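Protein data:
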Amino acid sequence: MNNNKTFFLILLLLCTSLQSMSQKSSRDYYNLAVKQTDSMMYSKAIENYSKAIELNQVFHEAYFSLGYTYKLVGKYDLAIQNYSDAIRIQPSSLYYYNRASAYSMIYNYSLAIRDCDSVLKLQPENIETLILRAQLFDQLNQDLDAISDYKKVMKLGFNPPKLYYDIGRIYESINQQDSALVYYNLDILKDTSESYSHIRIAEIYETRSDFNKALSVYNQCILKFPSYNYAYYKRGFIKIHYLSDKKDGCSDMSEAYRLGFEAAKLEIEAHCE
């Protein structure tokens, strides 16, 4: 009789153990979901992150990863909701930054800036966040704030050429042309594959009626980028309309049109035929 009781007790313990082993933990669901996110199996990943959260209501990594996955599929409101849950449980610069990015995707720039501020209180030299906040300030036409953040990034030693172009563009938008010229020229020095700063410099000189300087910059631009049709068009326009050099101007217009700049056709018809 005692042997039977012992047998049934062992069997019960074995069944209980097997049942426990067959049940996934919240961490198991989370780890599976991470792999599914990496494999772009987003629907499955969302399902398993949700299961992980059901089993552990304070699993902030699961909330964050679920938010990240929702962001990947363009469901920004759900991403923000889950980032917010993660922040409620465990505030971190990573969580604030990603929520800021999600807010920016739905054009809620003010709340995005607020989250960037939260990141920078924790990590004042977070370059990625400074760049994002500068871009957000730029969108809200808070021009001096945007320039300030971009310059902070430069002081931290991160100086991609586009940074110089963006600072120049913002200075130009607030009519500080001399400062704009400085940064456009720095952009050109930093990035020999970039053409936009040449055009901006030349057009600033045009607004000042300094056509010879404008032509000089267009010449440099065309020398570096011989297929840049807009540069030919602008050079031809100055020659025809301001320098009375119809022959060379029409030659540039013809080249611009040959390279696909359709507006050159109107100039050719009006002045070159």
